[in-house]
Design goal:
Radius of gyration: 20 Å
Shape: elongated
Number of domains: 2
Bound molecules: zinc ion
Distance between the termini: 59 Å
Strand order of the largest sheet: 4-3-5-6-7
CATH topology of the largest domain: Dna Topoisomerase Vi A Subunit, Chain: A, domain 2
Structural class: alpha/beta
Number of helices: 7
Number of strands: 7
Largest sheet: 5 strands, mixed
CATH architecture of the largest domain: 3-Layer(aba) Sandwich
Strand content: 5-15%
């Protein structure tokens, strides 16, 4: 029998499904929530639901957004001839923090990773190809997937797919440590990696 009542056990189990939350942390969070005033728990629950229901994917770049197209895609001051392809919405936030880049994005929501059962159809590659076919503005696609084996394989695959269309395809330089995630790069390193990008 569980040491906890069914509702507490359920809360611990659900919290434990979140990334980076082990069983011990899930227990700590659960008891913290149980000790919170009911009104605060309601605010937290509402914030979760509101964020989830009002957030959709931008039909153009596939980033999370409240409005479609997202503020970046609909900004006429941005350079609409350049698309930076990233793995996830966190990477867009990282690039925007750098303030060096003024083009558009495309969020793949993952990388090709057969070992982890992520096939080419599970990431937003088809959406990128359709986007490139329907918009004639694109002159360069910068591939900024993480410098891991999966990120490299995805970059190579995309380059092979896009180059025949006569669009310049570049890869951010390997100024970032091998195997590292974009989101952990400091602004200077990331900015240098962008500037020193090479053509496929
Ligand atoms: Zn967008």
């Amino acid at each position: 029998m569980s040491r906890y009542s069914p509702s507490v056990a359920k809360l611990i189990s659900e919290l434990g499904k979140l990334p980076g939350v082990g069983h011990k942390s899930a227990q700590r969070l659960a008891f913290h929530i149980l000790a919170m005033p009911e009104e605060e728990v309601k605010t937290l629950a509402d914030a979760l639901m509101t964020a989830r229901t009002s957030t959709k994917l931008c039909a153009i770049c596939q980033n999370f957004t409240d409005q479609d197209p997202c503020p970046i895609c609909s900004d006429p001051k941005r350079d609409h001839s350049t698309i930076c392809v990233v793995e996830n919405p966190r990477d867009v936030a990282t690039m925007e923090r750098m303030r060096d880049y003024n083009g558009l994005y495309h969020v793949l929501h993952g990388v090709y990773s057969p070992l982890n059962n992520v096939g080419l159809d599970e990431i937003k590659i088809r959406e990128l190809i359709t986007r490139l076919q329907t918009s004639t503005e694109t002159k360069e696609v910068i591939i900024a997937t993480n410098q891991t084996a999966e990120g490299e394989a995805t970059a190579m695959y995309l380059a092979r797919l896009i180059k025949p269309a006569g669009i310049k395809v570049t890869r951010i330089a390997s100024g970032l440590p091998m195997g590292s995630d974009l989101e952990y790069a400091d602004d200077v390193t990331l900015s240098k990696a962008m500037q020193a990008r090479h053509e496929f």
